């Protein structure tokens, strides 16, 4: 759920950028989309730049927010993958038969609990 929400925020950032670039910077829809995706993903080939003052002010805020949104999406994606691996490992471990000696060896801090 967190991954989907984070990806939705990234898509909304791209959409907002497309709209501003089309209406404020007077770029075509394809160029607006291209520049928006290149900027949000921080590729930025430098072939287009914001030319108007309003566009530059927007870009200063939008690039910061959208870059953080992309970073958070990658964080949640990695976190989901690690959580899945952790759940699979826990399920495998809990399915194993343990001897009393192995169970006692699992009590690392010797407090009687595993």
TL;DR of this structure?
By secondary structure, the protein is mostly helical.
Summarize the structure in words.
This protein has 114 residues and is mostly helical. The protein has a single domain, classed as Helix Hairpins (Orthogonal Bundle). 72% of the residues lie in helices and 0% in strands. The protein is built from four helices and no strands. Helix 1 crosses helix 2. The model has no long low-confidence stretch (mean pLDDT 90).
Write the layout of secondary structure elements.
Blueprint: H1 2-23, H2 29-40, H3 53-94, H4 100-105
List descriptors.
mainly alpha; membrane; outward rectifier potassium channel activity; Helix Hairpins; 2pore_dom_K_chnl; 0% strand; 72% helix; transmembrane helix; 4 helices
Q: Count every beta strand, where a strand is a DSSP E run of 2 or more residues.
A: 0
CATH architecture: Orthogonal Bundle
- Residue fraction in strands: under 5%
Query: Which radius of gyration do the C-alpha atoms yield?
Result: 24 Å
CATH topology descriptor: Helix Hairpins
Secondary structure category: mainly alpha
The run of helices and strands is HHHH
CATH domain class name: Mainly Alpha
Largest sheet data: none
Cα separation of the termini:
31 Å
Number of H/I helices: 4
Given as residue ranges, the uncertain stretches (5+ residues, pLDDT < 50) are none
Average pLDDT over all residues: 90
Give the tally of structural domains.
Answer: 1
* Envelope shape: rod-shaped
Helical percentage: over 70%
Protein name: Two-pore potassium channel 3-like
GO cellular component, one term: plasma membrane
GO molecular function, one term: outward rectifier potassium channel activity
Pfam families: Ion_trans_2
């Amino acid at each position: 759920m967190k991954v989907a929400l984070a990806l939705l925020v990234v898509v909304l950032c791209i959409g907002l950028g497309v709209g501003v670039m089309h209406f404020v910077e007077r770029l075509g829809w394809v160029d607006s989309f291209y520049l928006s995706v290149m900027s949000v993903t921080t590729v930025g080939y430098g072939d287009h730049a914001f030319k108007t003052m309003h566009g530059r002010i927007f870009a200063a805020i939008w690039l910061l927010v959208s870059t953080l949104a992309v970073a958070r999406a990658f964080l949640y994606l990695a976190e989901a993958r690690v959580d899945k691996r952790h759940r699979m490992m826990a399920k495998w471990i809990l399915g194993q038969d343990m001897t009393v000696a192995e169970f006692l060896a699992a009590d690392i801090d010797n407090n009687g609990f595993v």
